[in-house]
Amino acid sequence: MTTTTTTDHIRWLTDLDSDDTDEVGGKNASLGEMIGALADEGIRVPTGFATTATAYRAHLDANDLTDLVAEQTDRLDGDDETLADVGRTIRTAIAEAPLPEDVETAIRDAYRELADRTGRDPLDVAVRSSATAEDLPEASFAGQQETELNVVGADDLVAATRRCMASLFTDRAITYREAQGFDHLDVALSVGVQPMVRSDEAGAGVAFTIDTETGFPDVVVIDAAWGLGESVVGGTVNPDSYLVFKRLLDDEHLVPIIGKELGTKATKVVYSTNGDDPTETVETDPDERLRWVLDDDEILTLARWCVAIERHYERPMDIEWAKDGPSDDLYVVQARPETVQARRTGDVLTTQSLTETPPEPLVEGLAIGSSIAVGPARRLASPDDAGAFNDGDVLVTEMTDPDWGPIMERAAAIVTDHGGRTSHAAIVSRELGIPAIVGCGDASDRLGDGDEVTVSCAEGDTGRVYPGRLEHDTTEVDLAGLPETRTDIMMILASPAAAFRWWRLPVRGIGLARMEFIINNEIEIHPMALVRPDDVADEAARERIDRLTAGWEDGPSYFVDHLAWGIARIAASVHPHPVIVRMSDFKSNEYADLVGGAAFEPTEANPMLGLRGAARYTSPRYRDAFVLECRAVATVIDRMGLDNVVPMVPFCRTLDEADRVLEVMAEHGLGGEDGPDVYVMCEVPSNVVLAEEFADRFDGFSIGSNDLTQLVLGVDRDAEELAELFDERDPAVVTMIRDVIARVHEVGIPIGICGQAPSDHADFAALLVDAGIDSISVTPDSVVDVIEQVAEAEADRG
């Protein structure tokens, strides 16, 4: 179709590409680029048109606004009140001045043509701002300018265009340009106009092609909520969150969704029914809160689109998407470079950690960033309260939007009641390099104004606000300077939430992933209470089980899903290196502490030597739960495709136990001729004495030096009065370790060790190298020291 609009003031998105940023801004140029370059990938982008920088400057010139902008911005002196007055004055002038006749005519003609092209009359459009210096790899202007949705009619579109042009001078945009050194008059504002995707009847959200907290590059993070996407971008809801592993997306037989978190999604933004405003916020139905916004096929489609967009632009991307309710079609409505993690170097690993045992947290939420900050909590209801805020305070509020920008820049940390990982507070805090905790629920009620607090985002996905000023350390390690080792240095990990934090460490896999940590922290419920819920007599426990499993078909699916996601996240963090997942190794007293656990556990005099490990797995008390564990591991390997996972059996006392447990595992897809390798923990003296026989049954050994020491020396590892006797370097223990390494190697089976001793004692690491150990697994904070110790030991050995 031949366009009829004035080309100086209007450009169709189909005629644009990335070279047009100076004319239509980064957002609109990117939309045109995707329409032209990525249609063959199946990516849908709504068509539309954009006003040009020429149109914006014509508006300023026709109304003598250029001098006004210069005069007003010259008044800026760092004072918040002056900033607010300058911004308000400029915005009012731009929004109220009439557009030049030729600009307005071009917009009206293009709107009419867009209605003809789409066959929609009246045509409802999204009107978005696109600054000519925005969305560059080195500068993010995200969320600083106006977006208006469900704009209907040419008159309303013209008015919305003026308001968008005016939003180039929001307080945050002014402050950002000042800080980044952009001349205010060098930046222009283009307005993008596209038919509305009716996500008010479905859902929408945001996606990143990089983990936004750690910079881990191999995942796509997708946030989703019901209704229009403003609720996710604006942080007014706690959305669903999905995590997809990029490396396996090309195989259409796999479902590499390695994490899901069901958001509360308490409200949604929809088309207004009262006629005064184009949109309104309403409460979501109870059933919507318990339903996923996207199904697995839609999650994978979006993830594949995101990867294609990232590949095209050759950098991590921040993408907005929407689902059309009438058609169920997905659309990409915006894509811009991710500007925080992408700028960070991988050569230096900086970590922070608390150096004292913290008290119970005051509130918890989603951790943004991985640092720690201390300061007085300052509760503010709106940006108008800026006068009560001091530099270095911890900002506590319900949610933030661009008007909060100047206050946030002065904060030590940010804590909000609402919002997800892609909310305004999350995005800005990452840009500022300060910790934030979002989606806390009631932080603005529970944190006392002026009370000293510690905001910790250094403990994984969950951020915690503790009372008082807690001591903490900062460590920087030059990873490029670490030596190479012949011995595989691996990590011990328990928390899926912390797995991506350590992806830069030069390890060769995870030597011990503790399943019980996932069960305790991610699932919380005793697995038998999920298999046989009617056996749980405790009413409070039953209510908690119902609350935790809401949204799942049944208890077993809740258990399998959460366990699989936890394992998968750990496995993805080091893929394709091996991840040895130890099947659950709680003791009976620890199992009893899980929700509903008391109904299924015996009372044992010595749980350390009681119903644990292999004996538990085939016991009538627990076998059905062990089947769920096997199903979860098989899901990770077979359905998700993370075949670097190696299941491991702990505390296997006898050969008969080994045979029985391996039979159960093989029945459920683990081990056997066609299944994955299965390892055994070498932590009972019988594993050493019968090393060759155990090696006939298992594919690898991992020495559990703590339990082995306990049983070789006859010393309870938790006995305080015998603590001086518990030493993994005792000659009896060392002899056992040397012996089993030699004998297992004789039959061609790999053997490693997981325990704290190599981290604590350089001489222990040296003796392991001398004994020919294949791998040494240590906690992440010990990796660097152990690499250096092992390299030195290998050099001495020659």
Task: Write a short abstract of this structure.
This protein is an alpha/beta fold. The protein has 29 helices and 30 strands.
Question: Mind explaining what this structure looks like?
Answer:
The chain has 29 helices and 30 strands. By secondary structure, it is an alpha/beta fold. Residues 135-142 have low confidence and may be disordered. The longest helix is centred in the last third of the chain and has 20 residues, at 555-574. β17 (394-397), α11 (405-408) and β18 form a beta-alpha-beta unit. Strands 23-24-25-26-27-28-29-30 form an eight-stranded parallel beta barrel, surrounded by six helices. A seven-stranded mixed barrel has the order 15-19-18-17-16-20-21.
Q: Largest beta sheet, briefly?
A: 8 strands, parallel, barrel
- State which percent range the strand residues make up: 15-25%
Report the C-alpha radius of gyration, rounded.
Answer: 29 Å
User: What would you call the quaternary organization?
Assistant: single chain
Structural class: alpha/beta
Question: How many separate helices?
Answer: 29
Q: In which order are the strands of the major sheet placed?
A: 23-24-25-26-27-28-29-30
Q: What is the percent of helical residues?
A: 25-40%
Would you report the number of β strands? 30
Distance between the termini: 76 Å
Given as residue ranges, the uncertain stretches (5+ residues, pLDDT < 50) are: 135-142
What average pLDDT do the residues reach? 91
Shape: elongated
